[in-house]
Amino acid sequence: MKRLKIAIQKSGRLNEKSVELLEHCGLNFENYKSSLISPVSNFPLDILFLRDDDIPEYVEDGIADLGIVGENVINETEVDVAYLQRLGFGKCSLKIAVQNNNSIQELHHLNGKSIATTYPVILEKFLKKHNINAEIRTISGSVEISPGLGLSDAICDLVSTGGTLKSNGLVAFADVMSSEAVLIGSESAQKSELVNELIQRVQSVLRAKETKYVVLNIPKENLPLIVKLLPGVKSPTVVPLAEADWVAVHTVIQEHDFWEKISQLKQAGAQGIVVMPIEKIIL
Ligand code: ATP
Ligand code: MG
């Protein structure tokens, strides 16, 4: 059987989370910093470790069937690949920023100004869309120091917490795009059974990350109240306790409204609430 290839970042911000995701999918492989390719021993898959800039093209050309890369890199390289799954990590935004107290405060103030970036393709499209005539200065890194050096009036760069901007005396005022890591596939990959199997494993890991397993005790008479609050995967499991008129309820809670749900459960009489992580949810 033909082995699949997946390209992930060799080192950098997406490397660790990409490796972790593949491991949580039950794939066994060596993860030496020096390896360029690592075979998975329990699935017909080889992992290629590459610069993130190269991943979209490897996938477009079919050299790799799959890839994990930031949407920002896909848009910048303008490749034709299929988005198979958003992965929920590597979240950041491409933003336009200027030095504090600068007279550039709105997009149209950029007319006639210069903007340094490592994302000239995305920036050019953005400026065109907003009818702005600015000079794009393409540089290969350390964009945030260019206004201080007098190289440009503004920058267009990736921001997650904003800490780097702040420490360089910069302030962001326009969002160009938001991005996260995505699983991409070549044209042929989408028809492969093995790729489908892998996507399902990825989805079960992501689903589990978004949920927590919760066990709580409740007087039996409060059960209807609790069941209304807790959808579970299908519906909550109810188990009798040794103490008469009390039951234990087992269920899953979504991460996004976790604390709100816990406080509603307490109000409904829940006691001894135990929360556990979930490894996988297979529907
Ligand atoms: P490579 O050596 O592979 O080319 P790189 O230096 O281009 O790496 P990294 O800085 O490791 O790239 O970032 C990889 C990806 O992580 C980015 O393309 C982006 O999608 C995502 N990312 C998340 N937060 C940030 C951030 N604050 N700054 C930059 N990238 C971020
Ligand atoms: Mg790169």
Question: Your description of this structure?
Answer:
The chain has 283 residues and is an alpha/beta fold. Helices cover 25% and strands 32% of the residues. Helix 4 links the parallel strand 7 (114-117) and strand 8. The longest helix has 17 residues, at 193-209. The model has no long low-confidence stretch (mean pLDDT 94). Residues 51-53 line the site of magnesium ion.
Number of helical elements: 8
Shape: flat
Mean pLDDT: 94
**Beta strand %:** 25-35%
* DSSP summary, beta strand count: 15
Instruction: Provide the gyration radius in Å.
Output: 24 Å
**Main pleated-sheet profile:** 6 strands, mixed
Ligands, deduplicated: adenosine-5'-triphosphate, magnesium ion
Strand order, sheet with most strands = 2-3-1-4-11-5
Which spans of ≥5 residues are poorly predicted at pLDDT below 50? none
